[in-house]
């Protein structure tokens, strides 16, 4: 059964317009209804499991069940319809946000899944990329992102090569492959054109979409030997992707975004003089821009590319950087220190005085990402660290790498504030360290629904009256010379580490 999470009084004005938002995440799917002022009326969620195993070649497979996810969203819809009753007819539009790089294969006519969902964490096809004919620079100049097994193209190639049901569907012209967003659209939406669409954010994460033409890139399709007929049709972020039908009421789904992009719109239009950081399994730092040329090491992502004929026709991009070894490093670190890492232990570690100015952790869990982009390194600690000290320098390694990318983003002009979210952001000591090193006030809200709220804002047409209520906590920069010394020690060790590997 889905869980109901009432947040605000569910009574609504009989004529009050509402919007419906869907957030399909790695751990759960959530469906919520919002007022056009940003208030959440109701929310339902359904869990989705992740399965990890290794094949005979020791490639790690990270999978989810597409039909389980689809069923969970449908169950959330049923709960929402039962709760709202005839008020469901006040819902004027729907929007979607999802996992950018997770994908699967399905049957074109029936919508039936032909493969598991290959998670963004799945790197089973990494070896296929070793002899790729285009360089990193050539690929990034086309797509805005780098060659990586986390993105979709190599996974698509793997499915075409290894799954018999996929091969059979391809031979009968019944195959579709794409991000989980498009699979859900194919099954949930009524579409008169009989086409399945994809928005720019999800399309980019296939590594097959051109940042400048906004279409599939012919050269990249050739490199991966992928026929574009099996891919969804490229659309705008605010295209009409199809219609949901609820109690005979047709609701256009008119907004689709990648989850990390949607979250920037939770408070309304993203602020050009702010950085947005989400620290969960991985850590992401983004800054809004209209510039497609970013400093070396940063990615460029389409944040909001609307139909040029629409009212909201100003395109927005984000300079983006990732840090892989945030919460994703917890399992590795628990084995290293033989201790379960809990939120309380993290707080204790961060509050413990670390007097060593040369203590550090070189964090390569999941690969060393932006702006260095190395997958051939092994993590290492400085010498003679106790377990609590290892927890502390692990978290500081995430902050230090975010700081390096923060400085690169300053080329757009001074950053005046940082908005932080995600599970690890609940650690006060982490937020304070980030403020101390950047010299910028860090704002942390009690909002756990930023992605839902962001997609609701764009779905509602970016209304001027959007004013969601937050309880913001602020972390103001303080003088912390010992932390600065550890950052310099980390930088020096990193330089040697990169040069010796």
Describe the structure.
- The protein has 501 residues and is of the alpha+beta class.
- It has two domains: 256 residues, Nucleotidyltransferase, domain 5 (2-Layer Sandwich); 209 residues, ATPase, nucleotide binding domain (Nucleotidyltransferase, domain 5), CATH 3.30.420.40.
- The protein is built from 14 helices and 23 strands.
- The strands form six sheets. A seven-stranded mixed β-sheet has the order 1-4-3-2-7-14-13, with helices on both faces. A seven-stranded mixed β-sheet has the order 17-18-16-15-21-22-23.
- It starts with a strand and ends with a helix.
- The model has no long low-confidence stretch (mean pLDDT 94).
Quaternary organisation of the protein chains = single chain
What is the first-to-last residue Cα distance? Answer: 51 Å
Give the percentage of residues in beta strands.
15-25%
The second-level CATH architecture of the largest domain is 2-Layer Sandwich
Main-sheet strand order equals 1-4-3-2-7-14-13
Q: Major beta sheet, specifics? A: 7 strands, mixed
CATH superfamily label of the largest domain: ATPase, nucleotide binding domain
Count of helical segments?
A: 14
Helix content: 25-40%
């Amino acid at each position: 059964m889905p869980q109901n999470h009432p947040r605000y009084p569910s009574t609504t004005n009989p004529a009050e317009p509402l919007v419906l938002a869907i957030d399909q995440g790695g751990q759960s799917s959530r469906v919520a209804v919002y007022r056009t002022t940003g208030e959440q009326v109701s929310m339902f969620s359904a869990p989705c499991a992740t399965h990890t195993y290794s094949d005979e070649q020791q490639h790690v497979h990270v999978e989810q069940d597409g039909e389980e996810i689809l069923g969970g969203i449908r169950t959330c819809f049923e709960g929402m319809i039962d709760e709202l009753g005839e008020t469901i007819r006040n819902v004027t539009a729907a929007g979607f946000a999802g996992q950018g790089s997770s994908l699967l294969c399905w049957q074109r006519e029936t919508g039936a899944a032909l493969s598991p969902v290959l998670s963004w964490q799945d790197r089973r096809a990494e070896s296929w990329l070793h002899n790729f004919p285009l360089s990193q620079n050539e690929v990034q100049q086309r797509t805005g992102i780098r060659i990586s097994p986390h993105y979709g193209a190599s996974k698509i190639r793997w499915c075409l090569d290894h799954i018999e049901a996929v091969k059979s569907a391809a031979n009968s012209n019944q195959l579709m492959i794409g991000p989980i967003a498009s699979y859900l659209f194919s099954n949930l939406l009524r579409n008169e054109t009989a086409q399945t669409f994809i928005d720019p954010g999800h399309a980019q994460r296939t590594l097959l979409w051109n940042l400048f033409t906004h279409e599939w890139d012919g050269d990249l399709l050739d490199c991966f030997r992928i026929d574009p007929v099996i891919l969804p049709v490229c659309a705008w972020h605010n295209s009409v992707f199809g219609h949901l039908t609820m109690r005979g009421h047709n609701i256009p789904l008119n907004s689709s975004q990648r989850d990390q992009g949607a979250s920037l719109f939770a408070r309304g239009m993203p602020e050009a003089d702010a950085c947005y950081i989400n620290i969960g399994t991985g850590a992401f730092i983004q800054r809004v821009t209209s510039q497609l040329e970013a400093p070396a090491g940063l990615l460029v992502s389409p944040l909001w590319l609307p139909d040029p004929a629409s009212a909201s026709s100003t395109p927005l991009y984000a300079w983006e950087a990732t840090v892989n070894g945030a919460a994703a490093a917890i399992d590795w670190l628990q084995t290293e220190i033989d201790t379960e890492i809990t939120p309380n232990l993290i707080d204790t570690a961060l509050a413990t005085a670390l007097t060593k100015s040369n203590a550090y952790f070189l964090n390569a869990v999941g690969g060393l990402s932006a702006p260095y982009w190395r997958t051939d390194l092994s993590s290492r600690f400085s010498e003679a660290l106790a377990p609590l000290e290892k927890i502390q320098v692990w978290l500081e390694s995430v902050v230090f790498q975010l700081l390096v990318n923060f400085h690169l983003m300053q080329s757009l002009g001074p950053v005046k504030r940082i908005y932080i979210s995600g599970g690890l952001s609940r650690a006060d000591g982490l937020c304070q360290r980030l403020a101390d090193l950047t010299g910028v006030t860090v704002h942390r809200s009690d909002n756990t629904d930023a992605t839902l709220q962001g997609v609701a804002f764009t779905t509602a047409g970016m209304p001027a009256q959007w004013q969601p209520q937050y309880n913001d906590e602020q972390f103001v920069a303080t003088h912390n010379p010992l932390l600065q010394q550890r950052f310099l020690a980390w930088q020096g060790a990193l330089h040697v580490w990169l040069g010796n590997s």
